[in-house]
């Protein structure tokens, strides 16, 4: 949450910062700001809302070749002008952008900053005021910064300007992501390489508790105790076209359309000599485990629920799936030889990371399944499996979900084979069939739009029901709908409705029912009858071979374990059209951010 950028060099810093922030808007978009060094000192421009609003207030005539920028997802203090970053110290000498949360900011304010008048409600302001406080005690800026970092507790990625040392950006990182980008006559900082791909594809990773002094021609990395660190840059393997919308009106639509290609890329990335394969050390870690613990949040958690079915049904390993924000603070009794599997599109989700930190301290092995190589959860886990979905920019996760399901299927399948279990299907071929099936569903956008416009135009709420693996997908369908259209939606196990929730059914309440599993198709149709008898408007999405007259959509048949790859697609599209119909911001829904880097 929150994105930060910085540039120091010879070019117009304002434009580079603004373009960088536009690429980071997925990290937060309730306010934004930049601070630039000029001949007359540091100038700050900030505005509530999107980067487009900030652009309106930045003085185009200001000449500057260095600065820092920030796009915010509010944690402390409402989204308004004074809480927007950058924040300045009392004298205006120091200016700071911050991504993260300072847990002891109140205490520090009371103990060290008595008499300093705070201009915002943020935790961030305490950091910049502390730098000034220690600087007023006679410390050089680097030392004042270091001393500040020694007293703050929490997570931070920081960019600091000192009006008296305009040739340096002071940088630090702990738990929040931050990279330094390397150029010929300039250097940059960014929460994500994507932001500064406009000027460089060379990046240096920073580790927690490191301080960096960035000038236009040097990058000095030091540990908090002052030891110099040498680290070579790597090339960010990102293509500009991957992060542009092209002719699409929304990233979400582009990303949904990419889903068949994502499945095909995964098949190819996990194939060697014509056979599906994963790193032998991962196969070994799975074989060594007596139980898998899948840890994830949101959509990734829903993919984890599908993964449980795969590991238990195909590879015969018991699995528990946990919401990461609950697990760390309410840990269940663990088995003797657990393997932890973290599923995360971004690889940065703080809720999941706090679990990883704890289980590592306990000495347990870990595997991260992520879309982002080099992300925190990937770096810190023992093993990584990549999703190969390409950058996912829309806040609503779509292609990452199908990628997670496909990679989980491959992992479970290969584990079954490694254990010598009988597996009666060819997963590689079935995934290829699923990719084609997804394409057929995507080609039916008009029909799906019609279903949406009729069912969801004016409704206050909606239900999604399914049984077995369809129940897992129902929860994902409901999350998608509420997240981007703001319609109250819930996913339920079909048989559970009558135990309470059916009381909510009124005349016309839309109930989306998934029918993709032969063994329970009659049961779920029975549940549909129960809600229809109480006035609901049923929208049945069935799979070929299980269809009945009156079903809203009939989806192409795929292997019964791979149905989530296909059934989720119309639900994603339904949410998309519902959001459009209601005039909502599809890619950047209210109150949310793509990468949730606070607990
Ligand atoms: O990056 P992660 O997969 O760890 O993110 C987890 C959730 O925040 C994420 O899936 C969220 O629920 C999506 N916005 C849902 O579309």
How would you describe this protein?
The protein is an alpha/beta fold and 599 residues long. It has three domains: 3-238, Glutamine Phosphoribosylpyrophosphate, subunit 1, domain 1, CATH 3.60.20; 246-439, 3-Layer(aba) Sandwich (Rossmann fold), CATH 3.40.50; 444-584, Rossmann fold (3-Layer(aba) Sandwich), CATH 3.40.50.10490. Helices cover 36% and strands 23% of the residues. The strands form five sheets. The protein has an eight-stranded antiparallel sheet with strand order 3-2-4-1-10-9-11-15. The mean pLDDT is 95. The structure holds 5-amino-5-deoxy-1-O-phosphono-D-mannitol. 5-amino-5-deoxy-1-O-phosphono-D-mannitol (M6R) is lined by residues 297-300, 344-346, 349, 352, 395-397, 479, 483, 596.
Helix content: 25-40%
**What fold name stands as the CATH topology of the largest domain?**
Glutamine Phosphoribosylpyrophosphate, subunit 1, domain 1
* Ligand list: 5-amino-5-deoxy-1-O-phosphono-D-mannitol
CATH H-level homologous superfamily name of the largest domain: Aminohydrolase, N-terminal nucleophile (Ntn) domain
Question: What composes the largest sheet?
Answer: 8 strands, antiparallel
Detail the poorly predicted runs: none
**Strand percentage, roughly?**
15-25%
Oligomer kind: single chain
The SS-based structural class is alpha/beta
CATH class of the largest domain: Alpha Beta
Count of helical regions: 19
Radius of gyration: 25 Å
The residue-averaged pLDDT reads 95
Number of domains: 3
- Tell me which CATH architecture of the largest domain applies here: 4-Layer Sandwich
DSSP summary, beta strand count:
27
Spatial shape: globular
Q: Distance N terminus to C terminus?
A: 10 Å
């Amino acid at each position: 949450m929150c994105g930060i950028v910085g540039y120091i060099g010879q070019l117009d810093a304002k434009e580079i910062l603004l373009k960088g922030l536009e690429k980071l808007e997925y990290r937060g978009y309730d306010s934004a700001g930049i601070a630039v060094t000029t001949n007359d000192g540091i100038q700050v421009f900030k505005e509530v809302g999107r980067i487009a609003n900030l652009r309106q207030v930045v003085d185009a005539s200001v000449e500057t070749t260095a600065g820092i920028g920030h796009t915010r997802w509010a944690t402390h203090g409402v989204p308004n002008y004074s809480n927007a970053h950058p924040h300045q110290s009392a004298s205006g000498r120091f200016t700071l952008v911050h991504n993260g949360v300072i847990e002891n900011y109140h205490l520090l304010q009371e103990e060290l900053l008595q008499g300093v008048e705070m201009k915002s409600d943020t935790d961030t302001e305490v950091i910049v005021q502390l730098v000034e406080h220690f600087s007023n005690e006679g410390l050089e800026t680097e030392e004042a910064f270091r001393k500040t970092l020694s007293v703050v507790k929490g997570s931070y990625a920081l960019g600091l300007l000192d009006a008296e040392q305009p040739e340096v950006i002071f940088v630090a990182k702990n738990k929040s992501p931050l990279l330094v980008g390397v150029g010929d006559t300039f250097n940059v900082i960014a929460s994500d390489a994507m932001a500064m791909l406009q000027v460089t594809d060379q990046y240096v990773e920073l580790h927690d508790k490191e301080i960096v002094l960035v000038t236009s021609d040097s990058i000095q990395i030091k540990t908090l105790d002052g030891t110099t660190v040498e680290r070579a840059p790597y090339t960010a393997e990102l293509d500009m076209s991957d992060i542009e919308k092209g002719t699409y009106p929304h990233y979400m639509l582009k990303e949904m359309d990419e889903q068949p290609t994502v499945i095909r890329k995964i098949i190819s990335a996990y194939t060697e000599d014509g056979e599906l394969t994963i790193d032998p050390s991962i196969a070994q870690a799975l074989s060594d485990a007596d139980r898998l613990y899948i840890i994830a949040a949101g959509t990734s958690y829903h993919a984890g629920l599908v993964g449980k079915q795969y590991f238990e049904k195909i590879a015969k390993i018991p699995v528990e799936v946990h919401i990461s924000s609950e697990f760390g603070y309410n840990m269940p009794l663990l088995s003797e030889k657990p393997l932890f599997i973290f599923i995360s599109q971004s690889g940065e989700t703080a809720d999941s990371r706090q679990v990883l930190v704890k289980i590592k301290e306990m000495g347990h092995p870990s595997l991260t399944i992520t879309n982002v190589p080099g992300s925190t959860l990937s770096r810190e886990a023992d093993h990584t499996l990549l999703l190969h979905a390409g950058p996912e920019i829309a806040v609503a996760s779509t292609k990452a979900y199908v990628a997670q399901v496909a990679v989980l299927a491959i992992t479970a399948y290969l584990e079954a084979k490694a254990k010598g279990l009988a597996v009666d299907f060819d997963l590689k071929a079935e995934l290829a069939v699923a990719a084609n099936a997804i394409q057929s569903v995507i080609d039916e956008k008009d029909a799906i739009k019609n279903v949406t416009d009729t069912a969801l135009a004016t409704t206050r709420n909606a239900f999604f029901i399914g049984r077995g693996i369809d129940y897992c997908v129902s929860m994902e369908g409901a999350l998608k709908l509420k997240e981007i259209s703001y319609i109250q939606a819930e996913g339920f196990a079909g048989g559970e409705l009558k135990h309470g929730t059916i009381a909510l059914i009124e005349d016309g309440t839309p109930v989306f029912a998934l029918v993709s599993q032969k063994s329970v198709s009659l049961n779920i149709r029975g549940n549909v009858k129960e809600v229809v008898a109480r006035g609901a408007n049923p929208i049945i999405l069935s799979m070929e071979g299980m269809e009945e007259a009156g079903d809203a959509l009939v989806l192409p048949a795929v292997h019964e374990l791979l149905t989530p790859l296909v059934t989720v697609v119309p639900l994603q599209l339904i949410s998309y059209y519902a959001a459009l119909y209601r005039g909502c911001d599809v890619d950047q829904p209210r109150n949310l951010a793509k990468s949730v880097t606070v607990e």
